[in-house]
Design brief:
Blueprint lengths: L7 H4 L37 E5 L4 H6 L6 H12 L4 H4 E5 L17 H13 L6 E3 L5 E3 L2 H4 L3 E5 L9 H19 L4 E5 L1 H7 L7 H5 L4 E2 L19
Parallel strand pairs: 1-2, 1-6, 5-6
Antiparallel strand pairs: 3-4, 5-7
């Protein structure tokens, strides 16, 4: 009797739904060796607001879907409380679209890896601002950059809700402010977290997220140097 050894081709269907699938261009990124997954934008046909996060959570990267884990449940409930239909009204996008387990100071005591992650990822991921994920988790045109945001509202990251109940009130207030701005014809983006806000709105560096939280900032979409994909660029997965 011969044992059947599960080979590469045979094991494909047993893998996680998204962890092994990344755009070909990720191979040339300096972050490729320490990160996993790739999470494209979620962009409905007629969005009212956008949620911008620094990077995917582990569950998002594994499933290749924005806010696919427990945090997604929290965000959907918050959206509903603010008068939004999460599936129809909300864009979800990231500054950096891969996941790196860098929160542990033991892994990165001098924060050098985190600095590289922020600087390289912020630049390298910009070409994918013009793409979104479809139902088959493939990249197609139509990302957050094509929506062309007009205003930004910095706020605290979602995780703060679990630290102190007051943060939920503040975050909910800021999302409602975005809903009001949308009703006025604006295309608002709520930026969650200090690091994400500083990469989009450089002046947040002075005073920090506590000072700028809840302010409605008019600004163009340019969280880094690359304004659009290079000519002839193709997002291959």
């Amino acid at each position: 009797m011969k044992l059947h050894i599960l080979g590469y081709q045979d094991s494909t269907k047993f893998r996680s739904s998204g962890v092994a699938k990344r755009p070909a261009d990720c191979n040339s990124c300096k972050l490729n060796y320490l990160t996993t997954g790739f999470v494209p934008d979620k962009v409905p046909s007629k969005p009212r607001v956008a949620f911008l996060l620094l990077a995917p959570y582990a569950d998002d990267a594994n499933e290749r879907l924005p806010l696919a884990g427990n945090m997604g449940y929290v965000v959907k409930n918050l959206s509903r409380e603010c008068g939004l239909d999460y599936d129809k009204d909300v864009i979800v996008s990231y500054i950096i679209r891969c996941f790196a387990p860098l929160k542990s100071e033991a892994r990165d005591p001098n924060r050098k890896l985190k600095k590289t992650y922020l600087e390289q990822g912020c630049y390298n991921c910009r070409a994918y601002d013009y793409f979104k994920g479809n139902s088959q988790r493939e990249l197609i045109p139509g990302g957050i950059a094509d929506w062309n945001p007009t205003h930004y509202i910095p706020t605290y990251e979602f995780g703060k809700i679990f630290e102190q109940p007051a943060y939920k009130i503040l975050i909910t207030t800021d999302i409602k402010k975005a809903v009001e701005a949308s009703a006025e014809g604006k295309r608002p983006v709520v930026i969650f977290g200090s690091e994400a806000a500083k990469l989009v709105l450089p002046w947040v560096e002075e005073g920090g997220i506590k000072m700028w939280r809840g302010s409605l900032e008019e600004w163009t979409w340019k969280p880094s140097k690359a304004p659009e994909p290079p000519k002839g660029f193709k997002a291959l997965v």
